[in-house]
Amino acid sequence: MGLNPISASDSIVKKYLRYMETTFFINDKDYMKQFKKHISKPEHFAKGPYLDFSDSFELGKSINDLMAEGILSEEFQKLYINEPKLLSRSLYKHQELAIRKITDELNLVVSTGTGSGKTESFLLPIVNHLMKEKDDNNLSAGVRALVVYPMNALANDQMKRMRELFAAYPDITFGAYTGETEKDDVKGKAKYMALNNGQQPLPNEKISRNQMKDSPPQILITNYAMLEYLLLRPQDNVFFHGPHSDKWKYIVLDEAHTYTGATGIEVSMLLRRLKNTLSNNNKIKFILTSATLGDEDDNQEICDFASQLCAGAKFDTESIVRAFRYSYFNSKGSKKYPSEIYLELNNLIEENASLEKYKETITKFDSEFTSKSETVPNFLYDFIVQDNLYYEARRVLVNEPATLRNISNELSIKETELVAFVTVASKAEKDNIMLLDARYHMFVRALEGAYLTLGCHKDLSIIPREKTYVNGQEHKNYKISVCRYCGQIYIEATIEGSFLTQKKENEATEKNNFFMLIDGQNHESTDEDIIDTEEEQIYNLCGKCGKIEKANVLRSQMCHCGQAHVVKVKEPIDKKKTLKKCMSCGLQDTQGSVLRGFYLGQEAAASVIGSSLYEEIPSIHVEVLEQTHHYEDDFFGSLTSSTVSVKDVINKPTAKQLLVFSDSRQEAAYFASYFDFTYNNILRRRLFIEALKEVGEYSDEKGIEIKKAAIRLAALLEQHDIVESEISLKEAWKTILYEISSNDRNSLENLGLVSFEYQGFVAPQIGFYKGEEVQAIQRVLANSFKRDCMFDFPLAKEMLKSDKEYYTYKGLECTMSLTKIDKKNNYCKSWISNKNSNIRINYVEKTTGNNKKEINNFLEGVWQRIFLQQNQFYGGLVAKRPNEYIMDISKFKIRTPFTHKMQWYICDKCGKITVNNIKNICLAYRCEGKLTLCDFENEFANNHYRKQYLELDIFPMKVKEHTAQLSPESAKKYQEMFVKKDINVLSCSTTFEMGVDVGELETVFMKNMPPTPANYAQRAGRAGRRKDSVAYSLTFCRLSSHDLTYFNSPIKMIRGKIYPPKFKTENEKIVKRHINAAILAAFWRANTELFKDVGTFFDDDTYTCLLDFIKNLPELVKDYIEKFVPKEVVKQVKLWIEDLVHEDGILNKEYLVYKNELKELHDLKIEALSKSSAGESMGDYIKRIDFYVEKIKAENILAFLSKKNIIPKYGFPVDTVELVTSFDKGSLATNYTKTSKLRLQRDLMIAISEYAPGSEVIADGDMYTSQYIKRPTGQSKVWHQYDFGICPDKKCGHLNIKRHIAEQKEKYLQDCEICSEKVYKDNTFIIPEYGFIISPKVDKSTTKKPKKTYRGEIFYVGDKEEIIENENKEIKINNTIIKIKSTSNDELVVINTSDFYVCDTCGYAKVDEKFKEEFTNDKAGHKNPYGKPCNTKRLSKRTLGHKFKTDVAYISVRKFLDKEKALAVVYCLLEGISQYLGIERNDISGTLHYNKLDSGNWETNFILFDTVPGGAGHVRRIGEADNIKIERMLKKSLEVVKQCNCGEDSNGDSSCYSCLCNYYNQKHHDIIKRKYAIEFLEELLG
């Protein structure tokens, strides 16, 4: 039984909308009503499901036919001796064509779609070449074909196929040489047998590196990173310089579309080196394969790409092979059957019925239908090809995908019948031709916020707007957040001048403060129970104009708008980045902010959608076994004959699996933790309900004992494989404690599913309360212990701090005392009120009207005479410390509506529910609402969480990350576990985008819209790999213009234009790394004994020998380098080689770092030995130091050099840095094992934000915090630092930078380079080229979003000495002259916006936004990365920056545009040009720059640039474009902004994520408006 696309899509959307309604509770009925109305429209949030189909591939000749022609060798008969049918089976036509072209000695590009047998297209002709050699008696050892894959996983998949192919043909040898290949034969064989169920390896498979070096295989499989190593390592030279190295014939690159950007440049340079290494390079033929490389209109560009990638090899249009699709179906003579027949046929498929059943069913509808087919797929094929519905469906879908609704309307059938038809047709196959290769596509979009008009005209919108008009008058709009517990409205904003202002820039940098809307209740007093109470200020705010002033200011009126528009707001005086507790209800969040913005967090929304999809994946495989019994007897009193048919329905459980894609490694890592935590949190609550139902059957009316509930819950957690048996009871208690202390609106108690109730003293009266009120008041007062989980329970002593963090605030234990003794101890609460009030005082006051003194006396009586008593029926206080108590949890019991008669009440104001009712007074602090009977069927009918807790399918979910952050070993382990179904969900970046074996998946979830249709096709193609299955792809469209643009036009993503990759090889930094690699390879070939590890490499004698070798480089090596280096940069080679051995060169830099690390560790060891001599226990610590020293010395030299950017680093950008473990004693002991399994490397442009001190990084389920900027080695060495200042001229704004030499009292920096205005220093930025070091503390990742500092805008500075100008022209469009210029090696600077205070001695750094002085004194002191106290107390104010050179395109107009208008144009051009040219949006970026002309006028430059340092050739295409293409780019840009409807009445006086806004330009969201770009482009284009 497969996933039903209609019910699945409906359910996913329904749950998503239900989640939004449940999540965003607004404590204002008017606004809430409007919000519900807005989100009640599914069409606003979802599109689809779309149905897409493609025909089967057209068949060509068979291998027998090609042997008869003499194209293929007769040896193929031996190859397929065990499967002779394969010889006569037709190949696909494109496979046949590929074989012919490769045989004709053409270089080839095979671009034929997913599942098209691309491997056979190149493998069969390679095998044929080897067979022909055998025919000529020339077959010997030595590589003939090198097959390069971008990933080991793909190489491993290929090896499985080769084993099957060559099992009966030992003459051809093959082997995979990757990082996973063992060195010696014994280990190689053991590993092979372990991975292949004990099978012996084939005699012709080389299973170890030694085997391959002794006798190189004829077909060698590897990846490009290993190919680099093979070229570098002297012992591997046998492949290129050995006795059989002149046999090379083919170089195959699979998944060729991945070779774009930096990776494309790297691999292109690698292939240039390889080709020029081989002695017979003139005979080499290149074969590229890809599912997605572009259509026929792009033939020339595909050839250019292939030639550039493959060392200049010749490719022309004859070199391209595309798929031929079978579409020769003839509808003549077809019949029209009732469409409901497919519902019956689909039922038979689900029952796994016999062929006879299918015949019986069809005969009911058509008694004349006949078929000689003997299998169900063949029989269905025969039936469907003569059904008119098939041809009508083809007609509707032939040009583009369509929604099921549109198709069913077009065909006049029901959607359910259409889905049944697709399912049945997908099973139909005959002669290797499938009738329908179908795929479903569903898209869901994010919510963009809630925007309010305040005051007398209350209005709410979910479309972004800054203002609205009421009766022609302008009203200010504010984006709101709400308390996640009580729904109180907050405005996150700042006061600027006399106005309350919201800026998205402040939101991004967390500079906003929090203003709570006061709803007329008394908000003056503070609840003393709240941890970390704060002072607050009340303001009057005009909802019309935004004017704000303190409420205690005596003034007749603060503006002229009128008192009807004025509302009151409250602000905490102590301004914090995160609001931990609500100023209304006083509740707090243990994980993060108490506020919830109406932007659905990407992870939260994706988690809900992902779990909804996960629920829809079938977990049962149904089989129906039918047996027929014939009887002839007198059982019924006379001789009768009868036949009885018996059906047995067998439900076989099957594992659920889901592949989740994210574009970013950090997003994938965070989602893995978030999804795992949130899903399993709901699942725990679901199991808790089940446990209570089971235990509740045997409980009395007072309730269920919590201990018994914990034991049963532990059993269920274990039974359903949620946790291991050893920790099941502890996890059960954690679940219950989380629940009993939860203030979440969606906790089990707040949704009326459980009630935790204190078992009180039975008496006719207690103080002011009589009758039923006696028990109610005791329960209400005892609830004070629930709030901060102040309980003693059986496993309390076993709970670690990490366990306590699950159910308490920061893992801190709170206590209660009768009166507060220590005022500084916020974690001990006072039972009676000291100064202000508390929730107990407030409730007793509301229910009795007594004064505070009388209430305190009453509370003291309850404490002394009930809670403090030691009695088996009541009491319960347990002394934690003198005068500090917690409550014995056994004094509480649980009642549930499933097993107990219960009456619930709901507050008509705050919406809180309770079983405790005294005089209909609400229990919530300071709430003046009244309790009424709660009708759950109406009040909570659509509550998302209540339904989940009651209805969620109980199925375990194990989630893991799979990204480039993991070591290859960890990544491979998780892949294998996923294939074996030991992992349910894999959250991956692009690592699984290609044709990796991920088992038989039917569903894929994309957490964001992929960058291009090519990426989408690859990701969607991971599902539906089984021939008879229909794939389902679900995409969440987050808040970005890219995502929402394609959400509005999904077909452009499903079947959009795919562009060939483009890059340029003359990237200086990458070319340098390949030159370095060539030199090192030559050095090691000449000195093989020196190739070992890092310790050997940096040995003083070895290092001196290397420097001498480089300074006296052999002519042969120089010639080799000049051959493979691109001609554009060959003149600079000599200078680059000299730089390599310079004192400040990259080699010497790393040599000094290595020596210093060893010295520091040596000093630590001496110190530890001294302490040990004095009697301190230091043995383990000393062993760790020795281990680490050995680890540093023994590190693989090639991995080290790659990591340090000395030799090529494939799969990573150009300028990369690491985040590494500190050498602190605790860190060495606990974190090294974890971090050694990671590869935390980032491009510097991203690292100055994501890896900056104070930023948090998630990897493999853990959260790491950066603490240090790694210093250059040696006290005299310093970071590269630059003073900078922005020109104060408002028309200029140029960033002026100057190398930092020393601190200057004078703030003057220099005269502006553009306009000569005096520029003053703003700060100094450090270029953190040595990387960063983490804090010793590592936390488990859950739902907390990793913090990071923010990257500022990118400034164009221009390196006037080194700029290479490619294009410079003027074009005229509609009487307007615009200048187009394209440059290379142009310079830009990006700067982090945060202020850091940095220790120049050890690199320790902390973020401080408030302190603005140049220096600060670190009075508390800090430790260095080695865990020792640092002697330096002075910290210098700094920030982080990165200078980089890349390709730049200027689009200039000779007039001045205000910054806000010009920025709108820049972002519009980026969106439009990237779409028009098929460039991934993240591969290019933009900024503004102004020039002052000689005439004194200003020129506005829209600067677009490649984000890859060094450039990848993307924006160069703008300079190369002719006038027509330039005009089309501008028109496409205009289309981007005109298709949007943001702004009041769609007037464009705003911008949103559907047009110009995205994550990277958040600081400009307030000023960029769609209308500015429309006005500029319409004027330009006329």
Automatic annotation (TrEMBL):
Pfam families: DEAD, Helicase_C, MZB. The keyword Hydrolase applies. CDD domains: DEXHc_Hrq1-like. Signal peptide: none annotated. One of its GO terms (biological process) is interstrand cross-link repair. Residues 99-311 form the Helicase ATP-binding domain. It comes from the Bacteria. Residues 914-1071 form the Helicase C-terminal domain. PROSITE patterns: HELICASE_ATP_BIND_1, HELICASE_CTER. GO terms for molecular function: 3'-5' DNA helicase activity; ATP binding; nucleic acid binding. The keyword ATP-binding applies. InterPro entries: DEAD/DEAH_box_helicase_dom, Helicase_ATP-bd, Helicase_C-like, MZB, P-loop_NTPase. This is DEAD/DEAH box helicase. It comes from Alkalicella caledoniensis.
